[in-house]
Amino acid sequence: MRMATACSVAVLVAAGIGHSVVTGLDTGIKRVDAFRDMKNRPASGNGMNVLLVGTDGRDKITPEEKAKYRLGGAPCHCTDTIMIVHISEDRDRASVVSLPRDSYAELPAHTDQNSGKKHRAHPSKINAAYAEGGPNLTVRTVEHMTKVKIDHYLEVDFTSFIKTVDVLGGVEICTSRPLQDSNTGLNLAVGTHAMNGGEALQYVRSRYVDGASDLGRMRRQQRFLAALIAKATSSGVLLNPVKFRDVTQTLLGSVRADKGFGTSDMLDLGRAMRGFSPSSSEFTTVPLSAEGQTLPGIGATLRWHPTKAPKLFDALREDRPLAPHRNKPRVTLVDVSPQQIQVQVDNGTAVPGLGKRVDTQLRATGFRTTGLPGNVPTARTRRRPGPSSPTTPAGTAPRRPWRRPCRAARCAASTGRGRC
Predict the structure, then answer these.
(1) How far apart are CA 338 and CA 336, in angstroms?
(2) How far apart are the first and last CA of the chain?
(3) Taking a C-beta distance cutoff of 8 angstroms, is the pair 376, 355 a contact?
(4) Average pLDDT of the residues in 244-272
């Protein structure tokens, strides 16, 4: 990974445009004073902590998109998503902690940004901090609850979300069971789906696909972030100065950030991201107590676990991985000749004759195949028509692509169980 990072920087330097590519992009960011007049803050730790907030802003989304992706309701100007993104000091690891929006919180004393009324410290849900005091009160509340010092604030709305996914060329999401939510229009069959920005937004917004509600949605948001990191790090975006500029320009064109988030921070994050992979990124949700608390006039809230939650935030402050490192168990290699292994080949793709070819090739290497490959029916998923390709001649309608079953789905199909 060090070699990849050095190579990435070398590409930028050799092109002569490393810093100039992103210089000036920060001038287009909408700024917020997220750290105004903040006192008695937690001590700084190693690494960098970014508070990532997702709001329901949709001002620049077209009427057609609003209808297609069920975004017609009036925005509440509240936070749908709150995450602490910790980038390790050595830039080798990203740790993402989701904070449920219904978490019980003690909001510090503040002046209401809407009414101008002064409030004493009072209990509420954590997402009320943004509604009452904007980014500044949100940062203060998170720092007060976690004792983790926030270095930067980044706010993403529906518009920037859709545009960022689209400029990356979409993301792939795998689900091992059907997902449906009539509120967002989400309707996914089992398998792997190529999603554009609007479809990905439906996926991360859905709350009513199971009984897990907001906690289930946070897990899907974490899966989406992992898929986004995989796409960004595997598609060459972070190695290509021009692509990196285009993606950054699109993202920053409709986000809000603190006044200190500038060009140098973008370069640091870009260089760090080049070495990232889903395996070097970890995701979790703050541990919760078994029982919540109902507040008069506010409703049911989630209480953080009194011992497990502080330990999680201790790990962030001390720049430690959230998951303990586990040594891989030693395996003993056993010589088994291919002739001792019987293989049944099933074609789960839409490619005619592929099963027969694979069966023949395995038999040629010595495996005892049945010689009777089967065909597994595959469902199809809709995808936006793409450019012409060797299998899609110019001027003709592209064939509907087959959907590759995800690993969990293949396990269920072959064993009747959800796990291998």
Answers:
(1) 6
(2) 30
(3) no
(4) 71
CA–CA dist 85, 264 (Å, integer):
18
Q: Calculate the CA 382 to chain-centre distance.
A: 22
Q: Phi-psi region for residue 66, left (φ > 0), alpha (ψ -120 to 50) or beta?
A: alpha
Distance (Å, whole) CA 103 – CA 298: 11
Amino acid at 221: Q
**b (16+ CB within 10 A) / e for 301-331:** bbebeeeebeebbebbbebbebeeeeeeeee
Question: Domain ranges in the chain?
Answer: 2-317, 338-390+399-415
Task: Classify domain 2-317 by CATH architecture.
Answer: 3-Layer(aba) Sandwich (3.40)
Decide if pLDDT at 361 tops 50.
yes
Which residue in 133, 165, 147 sits closest to 53, CA to CA? 133
Question: In sequence order, which ranges of 275-365 are alpha helices (DSSP H)?
Answer: 308-317, 354-364
Strand bridging mode 179-181 / 118-119 = unpaired
Instruction: Average the pLDDT over each of 108-117, 332-341, 389-398 and give the range with the smallest value.
Output: 389-398
Q: How many angstroms separate the CA atoms of 171 and 165, rounded?
A: 7
Surface-to-core class of residue 44, CB atoms within 10 Å of its CB (0-12 exposed, 13-18 middle, 19+ buried):
exposed
pLDDT at 173 over 80: yes
Residue found by looking up tokens 């609007």 in the block: 198
Q: What is the DSSP string of 147-169?
A: -----EEEEE-HHHHHHHHHHTT
Element housing 195 (H / E): strand 191-195
Q: Is the pLDDT of residue 17 over 60?
A: no
Which residue, among 288, 317, 290, has the nearest Cα to 305 in the 3D structure? Answer: 288
Task: Identify the sign of the CA torsion 151, 103, 227, 329.
Answer: positive
Alpha-carbon gap, residue 386 to 99, rounded angstroms: 37
Contact between 248 and 25 under an 8 Å Cβ cutoff? The reply is yes
pLDDT value for 288: 94
Residue 323's contacts (CB-CB under 8 Å, 6 or more residues apart) are 282
CB of 384 closer than 8 Å to CB of 193: no
